[in-house]
Amino acid sequence: MKLTGKIALITNVSEFMGPAITEEFCREGAAVALHDRDDAAAKPLAAIAAGLGRDALVLGGDLTRPAEADRVVDAVVAESTHGQPHRARDGHPVARHDVAAAR
Fold it and tell me: Looking at residue 15, what is its pLDDT?
């Protein structure tokens, strides 16, 4: 399992390849953060994740709105780090503006 201990944010999860991507990430060991504009659309995919023994965080919101995108990213970071500062692979803390600048 290549992704054990990781959390993957999958956006627009109810459309296109979202279900297949969710299943594959879960099979590889990842917990998943499932986003869709309407969080109710992501809930069935959380059941798929649970059936594969993986945790799922369901998030809704319009990612074209910066405040909503920030809220989604903040929720995933908080979930994946248990509220601790996120660290890049080189060990340096990742500041909030670094996440926003990556968009």
Answer: 87
86 domain-assigned: yes
Structural domains in the chain (count): 1
Residues 75, 89: Cα–Cα separation, whole Å: 20
* CB atoms closer than 10 angstroms to residue 71: 15
User: Which residue's structure tokens are 């500041």?
Assistant: 95
For residue 97, count other CB atoms closer than 10 A to its CB.
8
Digit-coded pLDDT (tens) for 28-41: 999 999 999 998 99
Please classify residue 15 by burial: count the beta carbons closer than 10 Å to its beta carbon, then call 0-12 exposed, 13-18 middle and 19+ buried. exposed
In a domain, residue 17? The reply is yes
Residue 1 located in a structural domain: no
